Amino acid sequence: MTTSADIDPADLAERLDDAALTGTPIPQLADTHAVDVDAAYRVQQALIARRTGRGERLVGVKMGLTSQAKMAQVGVDSPILGQLTDTTQVTDGGSVDISGLIHPRVEPEIAFLLDRPPTPGMPFTDAVRAVAPALEVIDSRYRDFTFSLPDVIADNTSAALFTIGQWQPIPDGVDNLGVLLDIDGHTVQTGSTAAILGDPRRALAAGIALAGRHGPTLRAGWIFLAGAATAAVPLTPGAHIRATVHGIGTAAFTTTGGTP
Ligand code: OOG
Ligand code: MG
Fold first, then answer.
1. Is the dihedral of CA 86, 90, 91, 96 positive or negative?
2. Tally of domains within the chain
3. 60 lines ligand 1 (CB under 6 A)
4. In a domain, 3, yes or no
C-alpha cells in the first residue's frame, strides 16, 4: 500500500482515462493506494488535464451525493465535486450512443447557469443567471459500480454525459420543486429539489467551497449541476429519457447503441 504522499496522480489518472476510453472497468484505486480526499482531487485534476489536452473544454462543474437517496445508493455520504466538458454534453431532445459506456445510470437534476465567478456567501441571485432541468448520465469506471469516497472523486465523480433543458429565469423558490424521471413514458423516480441538501442553493455553496479548496476556478457562463434529487436508474439502449422539474420544464434524450 502506498501512502497518499507518494501516489502519482498522473499514473492513476491514466488508469481511469483508459478505463473510460476502452469501456473497461478497473479495480478501485483504494485497493492498492492510500488515496485521501486531497490526493483524489489531484488525480481528478490530472484526469481533466489529459482530456483538455486532447481538446475537450471545461463548461462547468457538478455536485454529487447531495441527496440521501444518492448517498444511500452508493454508500458514500459526503458531497463531491466533478467537472463537465463540452464533448460530454448531449443536446436536449437529441440522441446519444451509449455502447461505449460501462454500466451507465441516469438521474434527474437541476442546473444553474453561473452569472459571474461565484464567491463564498454571494447571494444566489447574484451568482446565478438562470436555472434549467437536467439529466446526468453517470458511469463509474470501477468494477461493479463500487467505490470509496476518494475513488469516486478521482473518477471525476462518475461523470459521463449530461443534458440541459431550456434555461429559465430563476423562479421564486427553487427549494421545493417536484422532480420526475421518466423512461419510455413511465415515471421511474420521483423526488423534490428539497432532497438536495434541503435546498439546492446549498449545493451551490458547497460547490463553491469545494472548488475553492480543490479547483477548478468557477467561471461566468459555466453550468453548475446541483446533484441528483433521486437515486439513479440503469440506462439501456433504445430508451427515451426525460427529467421534469416542476415549474421549470423538461430535459430529454434518446439512447442508441448495442447493450452496454
Ligand atoms: C457518484 C456521482 C453522484 C449525483 O448527482 O449524486 C452524482 C455516483 O453515484 O456514481 O452525480
Ligand atoms: Mg449527478
1. positive
2. 1
3. no
4. no
Amino acid at 58: L
- Which one, of 63, 109, 69, lies nearest residue 248 by Cα? 109
The answer to whether position 73 is within a domain reads: yes
Beta carbons within 8 Å of 142's beta carbon, 6+ residues apart: 25, 26, 27, 28, 151, 155
| pLDDT > 90: percent of the chain | 95
In a domain, 87, yes or no: yes
**Ligand 1 site, residue 139, Cβ cutoff 6 A:** no
CA of 68 to the centre of ligand 1 (A): 11
Q: Is residue 173 part of a domain?
A: yes
Q: Could you tell me the residue range of the domain that residue 71 belongs to? A: 58-256
Q: What is the mean pLDDT of residues 101-120?
A: 97
